[in-house]
Amino acid sequence: MIKFLEGKLIYLRAIALSDVNESYLKWLNEPDVTTGLASGTFPTSLESLRLYVEQKSADKNTIMFAICDQKSNKHIGNIKLDNFDWVSRTCELGVLIGEKDFWGKGIGSEVCKLTIRYALQQLNIRKILLAVYANNPGAIKVYEKIGFVKEGTLRQHIWSNGEYIDKHYMGLFASELKA
Ligand SMILES: CC(C)(COP(=O)(O)OP(=O)(O)OC[C@H]1O[C@@H](n2cnc3c(N)ncnc32)[C@H](O)[C@@H]1OP(=O)(O)O)[C@@H](O)C(=O)NCCC(=O)NCCS
Hints:
By secondary structure, the chain is α+β, with helices and mostly antiparallel strands. The protein is 28% helix and 36% strand.
């Protein structure tokens, strides 16, 4: 197992086609996991997931990591940086912890900080952006704790569970990242 970035609870390694299995597929078909994501709207099959991972791995404008538990090496989620603008030195962050047993243990915060430090220090990125739906207060709390600041809202932009909800954009500069 080649570890690329290492935290206390988790480590990150490149995602691979061999990560596409029934467990990963289950995350994307589980409403609890996908409520705050664009992913859950349509069903995902093993074939479409394989294609997605293949495309993301080949895309020069995306860096996608598998999040793995330090103790068991289990693949528990993914985190990615994409939409790089190498002139303005910005990129976007997206995180998914698919294994619900691993929620609420500080992994979301640790994995976001680890990936953000990599973007700021190794890729010389200046500012990280992310989008989060208003029906995902857990994610908003994680992002605010890290130091993200709400920058704008697309009002009633997303149809989710029978209502239109806001989509927020949050941003973070290096100086705002909390230890
Ligand atoms: C959102 C997500 C990344 C949070 O990860 P996590 O590992 O559970 O978060 P942490 O344990 O680091 O929590 C950090 C803080 O946020 C709080 N928090 C996390 N989830 C919460 C929730 N659903 N409701 C309320 N607070 C929550 C924690 O209590 C903690 O606060 P504390 O330090 O004051 O105790 C994870 O639940 C997830 O991947 N969900 C599915 C996909 C998703 O929604 N991704 C984000 C899309 S924008």
